[in-house]
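Hi C.,

You asked whether I'd gotten around to modeling the 344-residue construct. I have! Everything is below, sequence then structure, no commentary in between.
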Amino acid sequence: MDDLKFGTRNKRGDWTPHATVQPAPIWQMPPQLKAVLHWLPHYFLPWNVIFAASAVAYWAWVIPPVEVLRSIQIGWVLWLYAVNAVCVFLFYGAFELHLYVLRRQGSRFKYNAKFPSEQKSKAFWFESQVIDSMLRSFLSGVTIWTGLEALMLWAYANGYAPWLSFADNPWTLALVALAVPIIHEVHFFLVHRLIHTPFLYKWVHSVHHNSVNPSPWSSLAMHPVEHLLYFGTAFYHLILPSNPIIMIYQMNFAGFGAIPGHVGFDKIEVGDDRLVDSHAYAHYLHHKYFEVNYGDALIPLDKWFGTWHDGSPEGEARMQARYRKRKEKLAARKAQLDAKGATE
């Protein structure tokens, strides 16, 4: 497939889409009904439906009976860890195998033309981004994911979290389920801004940003503190009138939903003539520039807080202007301190 119909490629081989990143059209004023109706299926398909269906499957075939959940037992917690680990291996591994090992679509639609396996770095364990990312995903990521999930299931089973039944509260739970991506977006933005503060960035978030050229296994390549904060999205369901299935959906949305933003390709080729949008460009720009796009554009939080980069020359200019303004402020502060020191 000719990716140059959809974007451009520079001399290094890096690919950039023609279309800029846009927040969901529900925020446009005045409202654009046609745009909203065109966007609405993308709110569900394909990712949100997959993650929601996985939660139903977990509840039906993985989660033990409620009487078992009333006490934390190593047996069922290890079983839950094993299922999470296998699902991560299969889901993440499918993208890695298709795009990065077999390279079935080459570098078509790939933002950064280089592949991580070609770039050894001492920033990673064994100087390998893939090995480092996989180890962090399973040793810390899936462990903390499972631990918090088990804690929440225990809370539901013991009445510490509001558990509504689908039979008695279908509309309330439908609204909560629809809000899962919104909850994730707000939580992710707030946590992301927090861990970009200098101290937490240096000791925590820099681990994730070692993957400047992200690939599927980069998705959960985090410091344990970041894993704890990231999967803390489950705790909203201690307050919300919810259901354990929706809580699992929230966890799976975080655990499996990190893939689209880190896949490194704008579109995934399915067959000879079908493309699936990854919606990865906004987060790829964050990995490239570090201080833009702390959210994923479902809600225009970055626009509201002045950190938006849509991939356009205008977005680049806004980012550079913000950098210059910050440098000028730091230089002025340094000059002021130097002048004060000279007079003392």
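If it helps when you're writing up: The mean pLDDT is 95.

Thanks,
B.
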